[in-house]
Amino acid sequence: MAYEAIWAADTSKLNKMELVKLEKDGLDVIRTIIEKYAHEGYSSITPDDMNLFKWAGVYEQKPKDGHFMMRVRVPSGIMTTAQARAMADIARDYGRNLVDVTTRQAIQFHWLTVEQLPDIFNRLEKVGLYSYEACGDCPRTIVGNPLAGIDKDELFDTTALVNEVNDFFLLNRDFSNLPRKYKMSISSNIYNSGHAEIQCLAFTPASKVIDGQEVLGFHAWVGGGLSAKPHLAKKLDLFVRPEEVLKVAIGVTTIFRDYGYREKRHHARLKFLVADWGPEKFKEKLVEVIGEMPSLGEDRVVGWTAAYFDGVHKQKQEGLNYIGLSVPVGRLSGDELSELAEIADTYGDGHIRTTVSQNIIISGVKDENVDKALAAKVLERLTPNPKHFMSRTVSCTGNEFCNLAVVETKERARAVAEYLDKNVELDEEVRIHFIGCPNACGQKHIADIGLQGALVKTPEGMVDAFDLSVGGILGPGAKFNETLKGRVKGDQVGPVLEQLILFFKENRGPEESFHQF
Ligand code: SF4
Questions:
Q1: Rounded to whole angstroms, how far apart are CA atoms 482 and 328?
Q2: Structural contact between residues 425 and 498, judged by C-beta atoms closer than 8 angstroms
Q3: pLDDT in tens, 195-214
Q4: 202 lines ligand 1 (CB under 6 A)
Q5: β-pairing, 143-144 with 78-80?
Q6: Which segments of 397-460 does DSSP mark as H helices, in order?
Q7: Which residues make Cβ contacts (< 8 Å) with residue 415, sequence separation at least 6?
Q8: What is the DSSP-derived secondary structure letter of residue 185?
Q9: Is the shortest distance between the CB of 124 and ligand 1 below 6 Å?
Q10: Which family does it belong to (predicted)?
Q11: What is the pLDDT of residues 121-155, one digit of tens each?
């Protein structure tokens, strides 16, 4: 029995969104936008269809006055300069010249209207890009190693694999009605550039001796995720050859689709099913779906660099370099993106790469062209040599545009980083993440210092404030940060973090870094 039939048999326990999805597949809204709403306008959109706009990669922006936010999938964060230029043009023509790099390596626009969406979908498709299923209860942008193919620290190039899995799931109606959002990462970088432990399904580099030969492949992790109840993913007792990644991805996604919880929306992520079943039962079910697989091999992840690449670095190809640029709190202009495309075409290999740390990399720069590339004016702001705190500050969208936000985050995060760079000298970077609500798009749980927006009552009324957590890390020894007592008012965040970091500086042991403190 197909999963719709299972749920349609007894709809009494389904949450409201499930009933909407049983009436209309989320992907159908794309056609409705193009054929109806783009002509009839914002006021003609029904509430149910507005909920399904996510499948087109589109959300209503705050305040709800007819403007939209759009997210565009960039698998593994790797795009061509033609794609970057198309997105820069969309931002300039329709999105008030604003481009955000997200913590899933995607690109986000704001200020769009429903009338503009068909042209934007068209422009994206012409260069092989899609906003479709960048949001919604479906497989989202596949996160990966932005350095795939050029990385000295990868076991092998994962570009084709990511594209294969992306192409299989994109617009695939067998998997367009999952219980909730579904996040995958595929990376063979030994420093965990795909943030494996916080994904619904992640593939990390591994090796195994099979028939006397060392085979390079992956380990598979399931059930990670953040939000109000964060879970670290669990490793399955499997060794996955590269050619079996798609099969495993289909198997895990099938289990989530057919057995994932659909009663309470906040309880519908894969992490809750994995927590209830445990990795052993999950593996048994997976083997039923896809057949026997070899057991675990040797983990090849040796640490975690939090996907930071700033500076000039040698590629695995002799004579070539990549330049990691800092994009303060992940925000740049369409003009800047277009200038980066110019640098990538003139001095690089025609690619621009986005990172889960909300930054950008230009690749394929010959030794003799590095200085010329570095001299570009746009790199004065998007610098490869950023100040410590600005370089490691991540922020979600916050209440500037997000309807779920409790507080403003992006501009505040930028101002706090600037304050710390001015007032605190430290010989190491401290990763600071801001989120505007418990949904945790800015991944505060994995930060050295995580700040989650909240409100506090003062004599003057309710004001923006933040809960502070410290000590998050991924890779071997992964753990989420722990929340400290008390709440800090928004205008006090800079001085309070200054005191916290100075306390660390004065009391740390020899060679002790912030996350070990
Ligand atoms: Fe919006 Fe909350 Fe996500 Fe921030 S964390 S972008 S406030 S949903």
A1: 26
A2: no
A3: 999 999 999 999 999 999 99
A4: no
A5: unpaired
A6: 410-423
A7: 494
A8: E
A9: no
A10: Belongs to the nitrite and sulfite reductase 4Fe-4S domain family.
A11: 999 999 999 999 999 999 999 999 999 999 999 99
> Residue 11 in contact with residue 25, Cβ under 8 Å?
no
- The alpha carbon of 433 and the centre of ligand 1 are apart by a number of angstroms equal to 12
CA 126–ligand 1 middle distance (angstroms): 30
Q: What is the ipTM of this complex?
A: 0.99
| Structure token pair of residue 81 | 């300069």
Which tokens go with 173? 């109606």
Task: Dig out the tokens for 333 from the structure.
Answer: 């202009």
Catalytic residues: 71, 180-181, 436, 441-442
Distance CA 454, CA 436 (A): 8
Could you give the CA distance from residue 145 to residue 355 in angstroms, rounded to a whole number? 8
Q: Could you tell me what percentage of the chain is helix, strand and coil, using 3-state DSSP and rounding each to the nearest 5?
A: 40, 25, 40
Contact present, 233 and 221 (Cβ < 8 Å): yes
Q: Residue 337 and residue 91: Cα distance in Å, rounded?
A: 10
- Helix/strand/coil for 37: helix
User: What's the gap between Cα 169 and its chain centre?
Assistant: 17
Cis omega (within 30 of 0) for bond into 63: yes
Do 196 and 221 form a contact (C-beta atoms < 8 A)? yes
Q: DSSP letters along 222-240, please?
A: E--B-SSS-B--EE-S--B
User: In 3D, which of 331, 325, 329, 363 has the Cα closest to residue 347?
Assistant: 363
Single-letter amino acid, residue 219? H
What's this model's pTM, rounded to 2 decimal places? 0.96
